[in-house]
Design goal:
Layout: H1 16-27, H2 30-33, H3 39-45, H4 54-79, H5 91-99, H6 105-138, H7 140-144, H8 152-165, H9 172-197, H10 210-218, H11 220-230, H12 238-242, H13 244-247, H14 249-277, H15 285-288, H16 295-326, E1 336-337, E2 346-347, H17 349-366, H18 369-374
Antiparallel strand pairs: 1-2
Length: 375
């Protein structure tokens, strides 16, 4: 049976656009905001080991720029966010909305099947994101001090296990801190990128899409393999749409164009500039462009940012489970409400422990973020 129409959601306006925008920075952009930790590195040092010559570096930087622009800014922010189901976003809401546009029963079933597939992929994201993000952040220890490389996996596992253990307490108490921390993260990674662009300003020529076109025309197979890693720069883009019901369209759009995407552009071009100056830095361009004195503080900040990104994905998995149960696509599971004020803040023990086991298996099985990102 089709669910009853939900009442139109009224988004809270306490604190106005600024407060909602900061909150969106903390929750919505955590995943895509921490992609610079591993995305550009994987283009050259991933499974295919592409030598970072200048034409490839500029071509890859051009593809990163236009992937962020076309997929996130144009597709999600400008187009997909217009399709809301009573103020809510996300793949299940989109599938429900699409069903309303057709009277053919067979088409409705196929549309919902696609929605269920998308939900399954989101659960997969809930496993992969915590593993690859936190591991890539902690791997900065090996760059700062190579003797600490053996401690990366144990520290990663401790951080992740602690993250899942605190889920039962809910995000209400710590949620207020997410926004300011992620704003600081974006400002710092943008500043690091700008500092590395200034000595090598020719990297900005990669804004011209001809560099991406020439990369594909000259080395089609190499460019195709690089594109497989470049897709990592838009991991988490679906959160812009999925969390629309929590913040509204305008705060997400404003915070994306005002803070998030400028910082991402600067950081990716900064990494490209670092690799142009020193091709050996392609093994970890994010941490290699951080000054030595700031290596350890950056590892701490990056770990905090990746925990926040992981928190957002895990919370999204809880919310999606609640929607799926309401639509009878999942069996009844225990759902605990962790806030007296926000009914959307829920905790699903079975999903939490399943994700924790899956994440631990991924970390232990793949052993480093490069292996996992390549897979």
């Amino acid at each position: 049976m089709a669910p009853a129409p939900a009442p139109r959601i009224r988004h809270p306006r306490k604190g106005g656009l600024l407060a909602l925008g900061v909150g969106a920075i903390g929750v919505v952009f955590g995943d895509i905001g921490t992609s610079p930790l591993y995305a550009f590195q994987e283009i050259f040092e991933g499974a295919h080991h592409i030598p970072p010559v200048e034409s490839r570096v500029l071509g890859a930087a051009s593809m990163v720029f236009w992937t962020l622009t076309l997929i996130v800014s144009v597709k999600y922010v400008a187009i997909v966010m217009r399709a809301d189901n009573n103020g809510e976003g996300g793949i299940v809401s989109l599938a429900t909305l699409a069903q309303k546009g057709t009277s053919w029963k067979g088409a409705r079933r196929w549309l919902m099947a696609l929605g269920i597939l998308g939900a399954a992929l989101f659960y997969g994201d809930g496993m992969v994101t915590p593993a690859v993000s936190v591991m890539s952040a902690v791997e900065g220890l090996g760059v700062a001090k190579p003797s600490l490389a053996d401690y990366v996996m144990p520290i990663t596992l401790v951080v992740l296990i602690c993250l899942f253990l605190v889920q039962k307490h809910g995000t209400a108490k710590v949620g207020a801190a997410f926004g300011p921390i992620m704003v600081m993260w974006f400002v710092i990674i943008g500043g690091l990128g700008l500092a590395n662009i200034l000595p090598t300003p020719r990297v900005l020529a990669a804004i011209n899409p001809m560099y991406a076109t020439q990369f594909f025309a000259g080395e089609p197979m190499t460019a195709f393999l690089a594109l497989g890693s470049i897709v990592l720069c838009v991991t988490g883009a679906e959160a812009l749409y999925a969390d629309m019901g929590h913040f509204g369209k305008k705060p997400i759009r404003v915070s994306w164009f005002a803070i998030a995407v400028p910082a991402l552009y600067l950081n990716y071009f900064g990494q490209a500039a670092e690799v142009l100056r020193d091709p050996k830095s392609a093994d970890n361009p994010f941490y290699n462009m951080v000054p030595d004195a700031l290596q350890f503080p950056m590892v701490i900040l990056a770990t905090m940012a990746t925990v926040i990104a992981s928190q957002a994905v895990i919370t999204g998995a809880f919310s999606m489970t609640k929607q799926a149960i309401a639509l009878d696509y999942l069996p009844r599971l225990q759902i605990k409400h962790t806030s007296d004020q926000e009914k959307g803040q829920v905790y699903v023990p079975a999903v939490n422990w399943f994700l924790m086991v899956a994440v631990i298996v991924l970390v232990v099985g793949f052993r480093d973020s490069s292996n996992l990102a390549s897979a």
